[in-house]
Specification:
InterPro entries: DUF3105. The chain has 4 helices and 6 strands. β5 and β6 form a beta hairpin. It is of the alpha/beta class. 28% of the residues are buried. A 6-stranded mixed beta sheet has the order 1-6-5-3-4-2.
């Protein structure tokens, strides 16, 4: 009988030891799971914060670029630039014009690249809608023109065309703003686009840049904007 009691006690002791070992493994696994989860959560929080900070930094940089002056830029008092709709010829004080009375129909400016001169009176209406107008003469290098055409074609509210009698080989114009640049890689090109495509100078922000006319002055268009 004593032997049986001893064997039974030993069995219970082994079972209890196995139970304690199992409980210890469960605690270790639980702590490990909590630890991994904590690391994952902290990593996600950290990554989310990094993404938000990166986005915020980009917005800050964009805002700073929009406020920064552009070297060599010329400005005209927007209040003194006429905005009447006329269907007669207009003599502008600058070349290319950066504002003034203009035709009731705008020139299409949804990344439109024109290979011949366009009607100024229609292009000025596009500037009123917040477009940037890239112009060039025969002195501009072919490689620069290719880069500019690619940039314009990918940018809504822009247009590009030749203007043979302008003073600079490459010029950029917006409503009341204009700059002559040295090449397509001149940092002022990106700065001008960033600042003036639908920029604060725009008299009619959000107005259409499609549905107007082409280089020949022909096309379906809305009136009165």
């Amino acid at each position: 009988m004593a032997a049986n009691r001893s064997t039974s006690a030993d069995r219970r002791a082994r079972i209890e030891e196995m139970r304690r070992a199992e409980q210890a493994r469960e605690r270790r696994n639980r702590f490990l799971t909590i630890g991994i989860s904590t690391v994952v959560v902290l990593s996600l929080v950290g990554f989310g914060g990094y993404v938000l900070k990166t986005q915020s930094d980009k917005e800050d940089a964009k805002e700073a670029a929009a406020k920064a002056p552009i070297v060599g830029e010329k400005s005209w008092d927007a209040k003194k630039l006429g905005r009447n709709h006329v269907e007669t010829a207009v003599k502008y004080d600058m070349k290319p014009p950066v504002g003034g009375d203009h035709h009731p129909v705008w020139l299409n400016c949804d990344g439109d690249v024109y290979d011949k001169a366009v009607p100024e009176v229609n292009a000025v209406h596009s500037l009123e809608h917040g477009a940037v107008w890239v112009t060039y003469t025969k002195k501009a290098a072919a490689a620069d023109l290719d880069k500019l055409k690619d940039k314009v074609s990918k940018t809504p509210y822009t247009l590009m065309s030749p203007v043979d009698d302008q003073t600079g080989a490459i010029m950029l114009s917006a409503w009341g703003k204009q700059v002559t640049v040295d090449s397509a890689t001149d940092p002022r090109v990106d700065a001008f686009f960033t600042k003036y495509v639908q920029g604060a100078q725009t008299p009619e922000p959000g107005a259409a840049c499609t549905g107007g006319v082409g280089a020949d002055g022909v096309g379906g268009a809305g009136m009165g904007q």
